[in-house]
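step=encode ok
step=design start
structure_in=
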């Protein structure tokens, strides 16, 4: 519900002002619709000008029958006779409403304590004391479970002890209400705390309702003044339709790479020129090496450098990244000189994410998506110890977050330095070697058969594809040659998807990963063998490779899924829009329906 009053006191008629060719309110309506999070979107207004404008643009609008003091009352009147569970208010003057914040405020209703929640709202971190003191900025304090304790225009809490680290939060005016909560609000009279602070949502607290707060640090542009409008117009002009598959992309690549057996020993001298006084290097090392003293001795820890063992038992999570960053910040006064990841794709991705999050504030989950990272990451080095994922060269880090499994894909993600030493992969078990190697093979197949294919992707993809066939189906390579070639196949496979995308197997494998925790490589294999209709020639080759190496691909992993689990899996998979577009073209939704996915998953 987008409450829209024509006569805003500070900037009358602002909702009908032109914003790059359309009125502000129409932009807001379209932005809310485009999030794809709602079954219905309505503008609720007192103005027939706004009403007609929305209808003329193909939208849905409702006329308020009564005079209202505030947006919530306007919404309450509109939903009184509708059959709804959860109503979300979107401010009419926020044309840049993003999916991220709305998704977070809705996600709280899927958490275990959802029963207790009457409404949910958003807050963002503030650091500037001027902002904390500004009575126009509403501050909020929360309990340990993020339920709101109080909202105020005063700085809360009062910082009597300056040595206690405290995070201040500003309240953002986005709410998701259970219907009952908003109807109660409408009927209950205002009390004195609300009246004196002039903050609507205090009414809920005064009547004992529970407001759950979610953190969202993305900043939108509100149109409060004519100057805001000028700024917003400029912003729209500058932000070209930034879809994932836009035509020209200016890609960062890994600027430095060493290759060859034994080259790992170059690490110390490479790092020495990046050492900053008092600032440690942090080594994130796969815990498979924990007892391997011979290997660990080759990592020269100096001064206050720190080695942290990482379990690759589970794939990386945004919360794990946040915890690592918190620990590092707590232990060291100075930001590290660099982060060095030594391990498989799991450790590669963690190292990339940690180096970003040491500099960018908030949670890693705030940055899942394309180009959301604003500040350059800390110097980071990747040393792969298994080949196949291409994570050592890619522009992304795949993370499981509270609402989705998605990478932080940005210009600041790729490593500053990579060390490719094929000898480091000697200890990898046969199954693991196969699964991760097949990740590379599948990257190539999906890139080469995708609609995004171009000469750039093709040249890398074909090379990696041929290398995979030589390694997994040929008989002429020594083990040493095979290790070196697989390391380069991984690199080329990663480069191939940089300028294109992965496809059906990855989209479906993300679903398995999200619901069952199935690992990336094995998940791709489980899916891929069922994809004859999409990749017939390559699925046949894949089956030959499975046979030749006597590898077991797990069967029947979806047979005991509950209906909800299956639905979640399908939703996660369908959410990977760019992957489907690459695999099947812009008309993919006609081919891939939830039913189709269910049928495929049931075979796995
Ligand atoms: P992994 O990192 O999960 O490791 C698999 C297993 O191999 C672990 O048990 C690990 O301890 C062990 N291992 C690692 N090196 C070893 C060695 N030298 N000897 C013996 N054992 C060793 O596996 P992976 O397949 O390399 O990585 C999967 C991860 O990569 C997933 O999280 C996936 O999402 C991610 N990924 C990222 C990208 C990207 O572009 N960023 C691309 C594909 C996959
Ligand atoms: Zn992959």
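sequence_out=
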């Amino acid at each position: 519900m987008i409450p829209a009053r024509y006569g805003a006191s500070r900037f009358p008629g602002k909702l009908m002002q032109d914003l790059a060719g359309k009125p502000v309110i129409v932009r807001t309506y379209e932005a809310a619709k485009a999030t794809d999070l709602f079954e219905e979107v309505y503008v609720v207004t007192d103005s027939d000008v706004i009403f007609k404008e929305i209808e003329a643009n193909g939208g849905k609008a409702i006329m308020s029958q009564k005079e209202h003091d505030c947006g919530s009352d306007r919404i309450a009147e509109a939903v009184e006779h509708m059959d709804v569970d959860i109503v979300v208010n979107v401010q009419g003057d926020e044309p840049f409403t993003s999916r991220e914040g709305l998704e977070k405020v809705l996600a709280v209703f899927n958490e275990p304590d959802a029963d207790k929640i009457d409404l949910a709202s958003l807050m963002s971190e503030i650091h500037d004391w001027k902002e904390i003191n500004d009575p126009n900025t509403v501050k909020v304090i929360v309990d340990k479970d993020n339920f709101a304790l109080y909202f105020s225009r005063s700085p809360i809490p009062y910082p009597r002890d300056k040595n206690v680290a405290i995070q201040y939060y500003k309240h953002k005016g986005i709410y998701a209400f259970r219907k009952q909560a908003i109807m109660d609000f409408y009927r209950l009279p205002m009390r004195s705390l609300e009246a004196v602070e002039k903050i609507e949502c205090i009414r809920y607290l005064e009547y004992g309702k529970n407001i759950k707060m979610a953190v969202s640090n993305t900043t939108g542009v509100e149109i409060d003044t004519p100057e805001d409008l000028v700024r917003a117009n400029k912003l729209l002009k500058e932000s070209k339709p930034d879809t994932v598959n836009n035509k020209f992309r200016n890609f960062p690549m890994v600027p430095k790479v060493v290759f060859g057996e034994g080259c790992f020993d170059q690490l110390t001298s490479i790092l020495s020129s990046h050492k900053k006084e008092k600032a440690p290097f942090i080594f994130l090392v796969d815990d498979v090496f924990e007892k391997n003293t011979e290997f660990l001795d080759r990592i020269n820890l100096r001064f206050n450098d720190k080695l942290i063992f990482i379990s690759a038992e589970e794939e990386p999570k945004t919360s794990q990244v946040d915890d690592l960053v918190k620990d590092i910040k707590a232990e060291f006064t100075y930001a590290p000189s660099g982060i060095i990841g030594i391990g498989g794709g799991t450790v590669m991705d963690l190292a990339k994410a940690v180096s970003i999050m040491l500099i960018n504030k908030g949670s890693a989950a705030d940055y899942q998506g394309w180009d959301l990272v604003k500040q350059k990451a800390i110097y980071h080095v990747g040393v792969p110890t298994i080949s196949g994922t291409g994570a050592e060269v890619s522009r992304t880090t795949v993370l499981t977050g509270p609402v989705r499994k998605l990478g932080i894909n940005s210009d600041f993600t790729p490593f500053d330095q990579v060390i490719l030493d094929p000898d480091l992969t000697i200890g990898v078990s046969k199954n693991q070697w196969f699964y991760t190697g097949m990740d590379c093979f599948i990257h190539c197949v999906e890139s080469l058969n995708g609609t995004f294919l171009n000469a750039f992707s093709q040249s890398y993809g074909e090379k990696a594809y041929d290398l995979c066939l030589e390694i997994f189906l040929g008989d002429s390579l020594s083990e040493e040659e095979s290790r070196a070639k697989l390391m380069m196949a991984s690199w080329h496979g990663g480069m191939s998807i940089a300028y294109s995308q992965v496809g059906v197997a990855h989209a479906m494998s993300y679903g398995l990963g999200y619901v069952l925790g199935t690992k990336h490589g094995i998940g791709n294999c489980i899916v891929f063998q069922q994809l004859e209709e999409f990749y017939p020639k390559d699925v046949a080759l894949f089956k030959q490779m499975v046979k030749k190496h006597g590898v077991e691909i797990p069967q029947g992993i979806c047979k005991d899924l509950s209906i909800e689990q299956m639905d979640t899996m399908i939703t996660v998979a369908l959410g990977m829009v760019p992957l489907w577009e690459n695999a099947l073209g812009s008309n993919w939704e006609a081919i891939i329906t939830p039913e189709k996915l269910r049928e495929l998953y049931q075979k796995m």
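step=design ok
step=annotate ok -> The longest strand covers residues 168-178.
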